[in-house]
Design a protein that fits this description.
Bound molecules: adenosine-5'-diphosphate, zinc ion
Distance between the termini: 20 Å
Strand order of the largest sheet: 2-3-1-4-8
Number of strands: 8
Helix content: 40-55%
Radius of gyration: 17 Å
CATH topology of one domain: Rossmann fold
CATH superfamily of one domain: P-loop containing nucleotide triphosphate hydrolases
CATH architecture of one domain: 3-Layer(aba) Sandwich
Strand content: 15-25%
Order of helices and strands: EHEHHHEHEHEEEHEH
Structural class: alpha/beta
Length: 219
């Protein structure tokens, strides 16, 4: 089992970049945000607990996050390669991930920090629309669907995530800045942090990440 992490502010493009990497590599995508939104939709115990935090743009408590990630990893095989998206977000989550990987004889390969200026993050988030059915992501200006409000891929209805309202976006960006300084240092010290520019077109960022993960071991 091996693992990489996609780390970046809301709007840095973690989700769409993960899609691009998944299409060209064996990585299994684990997005805690997607898992939580699914739990909210299904009305599970986790979903009922997480919903209010998410609406406010706050982090869901570590214990809940750790539990859903552990449950997911327990289902995996020893040869799996994981790509975490939006996890870990706190020091406690990072430490528990290390323990969990060690217990499974796995290692953390690279942590990719996706960097983009704040104005760009804001513009991306306020215009973001998501398919209710398949989760595909659009943007009112940058990636408009062929028919307004309708998913190109599956015909599903496009909606704006409740936490993509401007005031909640500002809150999420602040939460990100506060909670992640320690994490960046933690991974930088271990020499696994790689910063990639994600203000570029998505395929350029994806290509750069793929060059890292596909290079032969030891180089
Ligand atoms: P974004 O990074 O664009 O805010 P995500 O889909 O990654 O979007 O997360 C949406 C929300 O889900 C977060 O604002 C937070 O409430 C919750 N969440 C997701 N992942 C975590 C995590 N690892 N720890 C705590 N809360 C999380
Ligand atoms: Zn769709």
């Amino acid at each position: 089992m091996k693992a990489i992490i996609l780390f970046g502010a809301p709007g840095a493009g973690k989700g769409t970049i993960a899609e691009g990497i998944k299409a060209a590599s064996p990585f299994i995508h684990i997005s805690t945000g997607d898992m939580l939104r699914e739990a909210v939709k299904q009305g599970t115990a986790v979903g009922r607990e997480a919903e209010a935090y998410m609406k406010r743009g706050e982090l869901v408590p570590d214990a809940t996050i750790i539990r859903i990630v552990e449950e997911r990893l327990d289902k995996g095989g020893k040869d799996d390669a994981y790509m975490f998206d939006g996890f870990p977000r706190t020091d406690a989550q990072a430490r528990l991930l290390d323990e969990s990987l060690a217990r499974r004889g796995a290692r953390l390969d690279v942590v990719f920090q996706l960097a983009a200026p704040r104005e760009l993050l804001m513009a991306r988030l306020t215009g973001r629309r998501v398919c209710r059915k398949c989760g595909a992501s659009y943007h009112t200006i940058n990636i408009p669907p062929k028919r307004e409000g309708v998913c190109d891929r599956c015909g599903g209805e496009l909606y704006q995530r409740p936490d993509d309202q401007e005031s909640t976006i500002l809150k999420r960006l602040d939460v990100y800045d506060q909670q992640t300084q320690g994490l960046i240092q933690y991974y930088a010290k271990r020499g696994v942090l790689v910063t990639v520019d994600s203000a570029r077109p998505r395929q350029d960022t994806v290509a750069e990440i793929l060059r890292y993960v596909q290079r032969p071991a030891g180089s």
